[in-house]
Design brief:
mainly alpha; 3 helices; 10% strand; 84 residues; single chain; globular; two-stranded antiparallel sheet
């Protein structure tokens, strides 16, 4: 899945969709780190702030958790926050 640098959908949302697809496909496994911010902005050819927006969105959606000084990890479905 590629991103459209000139498309109307914000880049951070396009990258979030790619990462979500990779999580669902098992490419990024539960409780394992995703690639670093630097690796992601190099892969997608975007700025660091765009990658940070992507990670923030996926954290808010409960798909990722960021641990200061350790990295960003895929949340195991059993660990995902639930709406009461």
């Amino acid at each position: 899945m590629s991103i459209d640098l000139l498309g109307s959908e914000p880049l951070y949302r396009q990258i979030a969709a790619v990462i979500t697809t990779r999580i669902e496909a098992g490419t990024y496994e539960p409780r394992r780190a995703i690639p670093s911010e630097a690796a992601l902005y190099e892969e997608f050819g975007v700025s660091r702030s765009t990658v940070r927006g992507t990670i923030r969105l996926l954290n808010e959606q409960g798909l990722l958790v960021t641990v200061m000084g350790r990295g960003t990890f895929v949340v195991k479905r059993d660990d995902a926050p639930t709406a009461d």
